[in-house]
Amino acid sequence: MSSPNSRLTKYSCAVQANESPGTILSNIRMKERVTEPGIIEDQELAEYYNRMAKRHGRFPCQRVLKRVLAKGIEKGRAIDVGTGPGTFPIFLSKAIPELRFKGIDLSPVMVDIATRNAKEEGLADKVEFELGSAYALPAEDHSLDLVLCITALHHLERPVDFFNEVDRSLKEGGAFVIVDFHRDASFVLIGIFNLFWKVFFGKHPKARKGFIESIQSSYTLKECRGFLEQSKLKHWRLYTRTVEMWIESVRPNPSAPSTKG
């Protein structure tokens, strides 16, 4: 569930450090999605991603914060699914002091790093991290005010079950923000973002192909819309931003009949 450590086998990619953008694009051929193991067990790699997240994570965190504040979330209980080094819950806990976060991940290494990060930021009493699954969120029915899942959806083989868990755990009026890549994004954009990835995150040899690997294991917009429509989750909006797809809660119109999307 730790999003940076993805694996790619069905993209026809031969992306090397000295390849031009045109060569990169010509080597990317979108095929069917390939499952990837998403649990980081390599301590050195996990520490590298943690350093990169601290260095470059502010802007992504601000984007998510903006969406959370737009939904009127100012306090309560929240869960971050696939939390990795805990970047998002730690940032949001500082920005929204009355919001208490729990971050879950399948990687014991990442849970330990996230716990350490929270202690270093003086937030050990507000943010906690534990091993946990997207298919069994550690929350009672209708008890959460917010669910986050940032670049972890592509690790899930049963998105419908996850969306059902979001529906089960959220309070009436609770919010969710789910962000991931989509493999039907523009090849041009994929190539450009892959170059940025290599510049900012690709110094570690095991991380160099991380972005392309995550793209290929992600779902298309059509696939994701189908999962949402099959699930119990209501009042959602699915839209794209460059290579990302965002799934957010929307406030229902009391005068309109209930709809799924």
Question: What report would you give on this structure?
Answer:
It is a single chain. This protein is 38% helix and 20% strand. It has 261 residues and is an alpha/beta fold. It has a single domain (21-249), classed as Rossmann fold, CATH 3.40.50.150. A 7-stranded mixed β-sheet has the order 3-2-1-4-5-7-6, sandwiched between helices. Strand 6 (236-241) and strand 7 (244-249) form a beta hairpin. The longest helix is centred in the N-terminal third of the chain and has 14 residues, at 43-56. It is globular and about 40 Å long. It starts with 20 loop residues before the first helix and ends in a 12-residue tail after the last strand.
Explain the layout of strands and helices.
Layout lengths: L20 H7 L15 H14 L1 H13 L4 E7 L5 H9 L2 E8 L2 H13 L6 E5 L12 E7 L8 H11 E12 L5 H14 L9 H8 L3 H10 L5 E6 L2 E6 L12
Parallel strand pairs: 1-2, 1-4, 2-3, 4-5
Antiparallel strand pairs: 5-7, 6-7
CATH topology: Rossmann fold
Which strand order does the major sheet show? 3-2-1-4-5-7-6
Order of helices and strands: HHHEHEHEEHEHHHEE
Rounded to the nearest angstrom, the distance between the terminal CA atoms is 26 Å
Percentage of residues assigned to helices: 25-40%
Please, how many domains? 1
**Which geometry do the CA atoms define?**
globular
Rounded Rg? 18 Å
CATH class: Alpha Beta
CATH-level-2 architecture: 3-Layer(aba) Sandwich
Report on the biggest sheet.
7 strands, mixed
Compose a concise summary of this entry.
This protein is of the alpha/beta class and 261 residues long. It has one domain (21-249): 3-Layer(aba) Sandwich (Rossmann fold). It has helices at residues 21-27, 43-56, 58-70, 87-95, 108-120, 159-169, 187-200, 210-217, 221-230, and strands at 75-81, 98-105, 127-131, 144-150, 170-181, 236-241, 244-249.
